[in-house]
Amino acid sequence: MSHQHSMFADPKIVQEYKKLVAEIRQHDESYYQEDAPIVSDADYDALRKRLEEIERAHPELVSKDSPTQKVGAVPSKGFKTVQHAVPMLSLSNAFEDQDIEDFYGRLRNFLKLPEASEIEIVAEPKIDGLSCSLRYERGQLVLAATRGDGTTGEDITANVMTIQDVPKTISGNVPEILEVRGEIYMRRDEFMKLNEEQEKIGSKVFANPRNGAAGSVRQLNPAVSAARPLRFFGYALGEVSEQIAETQDGIRRKLKGWGFAQAEPQAVCKTADDVLSYYRTMEEERPDLPYDIDGVVYKVNRLDYQERLGFVARAPRWAIAHKFPAEKAVTILKDIIIQVGRTGALTPVAELEPITVGGVVVSRATLHNEDEIARKDIRIGDHVVVQRAGDVIPQIVSVVMDKRLKDSKDYEFRHECPICRSRAVREEGEAVWRCTGGLICPAQAKERLKHFVSRLAFDIEGLGSKIIEEFYDEGLVKNPADIFTLEERDKKSLTPLRKRDGWGDLSVKNLFESIDRRRTISLNRFIYALGIRQIGEATAKRLAETYLSFGEFRKAMIAASDMESEAYQNLLNVQDVGASVAADVVAFFAEDHNRRAVLDLLEHVTVEDAQPRMIGNSPVAGKTVVFTGTLPTLSRNEAKAKAESLGAKVAGSVSGKTDLVIAGEDAGSKLTKAKELGVAILTEAEWLSLIDGY
Ligand code: IVH
After folding, report:
1. What is the extent of the structural domain holding 686?
2. DSSP per-residue codes, 197-212
3. Separation of 91 CA from ligand 1 center, angstroms?
4. Which of 63, 180, 409, 670 sits 20 to 30 Å CA-CA off 93?
5. pTM given for the model
């Protein structure tokens, strides 16, 4: 390294310096702005090192746009995380008119309203962007966050501050705390202009406005976001310190008054017919709107109804998205490959001649299962109609029979695993074939690991699918516990990661840091991460809230293998757990290897205890209640949802564990049994007065 300072640098050095600056800036752009690095970290580090050498020797050369002068361009951890005070929900989807009738039906049923009664519904465009929560304290914007997994998002305040549509302060009669939720999006014309500019400077061109908006918000450098044509629509509230309206429409007016742009037109509808005619109008207007929409959203207007309806898993009962029909295109089916899932499910996947469907290039589509292929008579070499709806996996709708090749043959689904060659079996009542290779099947093992590190499980950044496969194939990571000993082993390794292709000091450091951040984990994530069949995110949460510690959970699941045991009965009493789910959990813990893998993992990971699901200190928290008979005012669904929201467990049958039975008209055997067992019995009115005010 040269330390000698010269007044005038050699022209060759000047040239090299300029080239380095340009090159590094290009790499920074690909890495930070497009999440798509084009050189290995090692090569990048070498370029940076050379640049710094030159700058030390020739300080007079250091230009303002040198990568070394950029502040905050290289944060190693990306964005800070944010806990949402009120979860950010998503919406369930409707595609057909009947789904809307059903939606109305469910609302009436839950609210126990008479058949054919009117319910006011606000209908509005569903904007295709990304959701964002804006938090105002005393009228000042203090925080902007992405949805993330709904509970934890990313802090994108600095970037959102640059969006002109977003009010930075709001005045008038504003609650002390106000969270406004809405969508960040790009207008179509502005998106096109952005792409033209991107193309001109040789930068990434975005596939559609949604990607453009997402890519621009997830900029680590706010100056880049600022230069992008981002906009915001407000459509809902998160945490608020006081009610601002009594209806959804009232919220919209308030938001509008405070300066939040609204997606127009909106309509207040009374019947399913009104709603559907709004849908048809929007379908027609869609091409003329300045921004992309992928459907419309319906929301129950009365907020007291919204409150009563609450939500299931991740979506409110009081709203639904009515999607526009999927876009379609015709292409050639080149091949059918079989993917092996983490539970051994063999899923046929279509490999297609790449084609653009609704602005996105599609080269694969799911074929679901053997029967589906047979039913649609799909053959390799066929011209097929492919459709893509929103973020749903592309599907094959049908075959263009006129174009079928004369020599094409029926597709033969082989009943064996394409990876480990184990026999495949199809259980009764199931449509899928499953590989029986279990623990010896590398495909299943890899998928289990991918699930383990995925966003709703351990959420380990930097351990993507490709890297998991690579680590598995090399024997570096064979089971979850290996992830947590990777750094130790890497230190002693003769071929440490940082010396490998595609890795550099920075990426290795980041990986180990993100693994370290997950050495402590919540019980619900831990249970979900185990990848037990049928245990999704919601059920994992129910189990965590029931058993509270992993030790208790594990003990109970082992005990529950005896179907006569109390442990088994208790498991069946957990919300969402029926005999089939119970069988899968019990089977998981009955397997020696699983038990060992879990114990190994616990050597490296601390599982935090969960909190029982108890909202405040309601008199029914922790109690097991049974509803029976026809209740005079409450629908069964509402009664159950309310009891659960107060921390009670709602069981389907009366046993020694039952604390309360709420009996309506025509209560039968459950009431008799409750009397026999001496369980407290309430009328609906008594129940309502017991929980009044909670
Ligand atoms: S309301 C609790 N309204 O669609 C209800 N969402 O597919 C929360 N979206 O996560 C959502 N336009 O990001 C609502 N007018 C609209 C919307 C909208 C777009 C997005 C939103 C949501 C996603 C669900």
Report:
1. 624-691
2. HHHHTT-PPPSSHHHH
3. 6
4. 180
5. 0.67
